[in-house]
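One thing: could you explain this record?
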Amino acid sequence: MKVTLLGTGCPQCHTKRYGPASLVRHGEVSVLIDCGSGVTQRLVGAGCPGGRLDAVLLTHLHSDHLVDLYQLIVSGWHQNRTVPQRIYGPKGTRAYVEGLLALWREERELRMAHERRPNLAGFTAEVVEYGEGPVVELPGLFVDAVKVEHEPIKEAYGFVFRADDGTVAAFSGDTRYCEALIEAARGADVLVHECFIHGLMKPVPGVRTQEGIDAVASYHTLSAEVGKVASEAGVGFLMLNHFVPAEFDREALAAEVAQDFAGPFAIGEDLMSYDVPTRTLTHGDAHWRLGS
């Protein structure tokens, strides 16, 4: 199983950190988690165009996690996708996707008629709504959902991927410190976890207030907490992603996380990958072996 961080950013626009999205590959199976801004470009950069995806999993229905969903559908069609995009999401996903397709119906029909591509099914989507528990079973790969704490969003989930080679990868989704996630991720080979870097965001008159900053922090996991989560779950490797804010001091963040987690961890970057069985971390031309 291989995990690739496609986008490690947040709603802030950033040229190096695109919107939240991750890719899991195992054998011939490819699964996308979330559809943040720029995901279709990052998929191509990772060598897995959206036309090849076996499943799309949405953690919750916040805009920064699904804003490029229609772009994924149309670009997959252009990449010669011949079957509908299979989208798995929490309650409300079906209505959202139906509304999205309805919004673009006229443009889509004109495009299909004008371009005359034979793969019309590839320009559609099928939705499966899930709750806590099993989400999807694919060849050699099983995915379960765990409900996390991202109130006032009630339907928010993390995922646990189990491969037939025994490797396990857990994803936090968006959540505050969450005991249910810790239990679900216990002993996982890798935990991909969001990170709100506490103290960096300051009030700006006319832009944001301290009350607003505190509200955002209240439903994310603070940088002072994420090391504790990994330590309590006993994971083999921690990959930090979905950083709020997108700009921060990496050395300072690493020191903060290391206070609570003695194991190996990475401050995630877009297109950083972790090969779970070989414990190999890659980013661009750089490779790190993290031991046996």
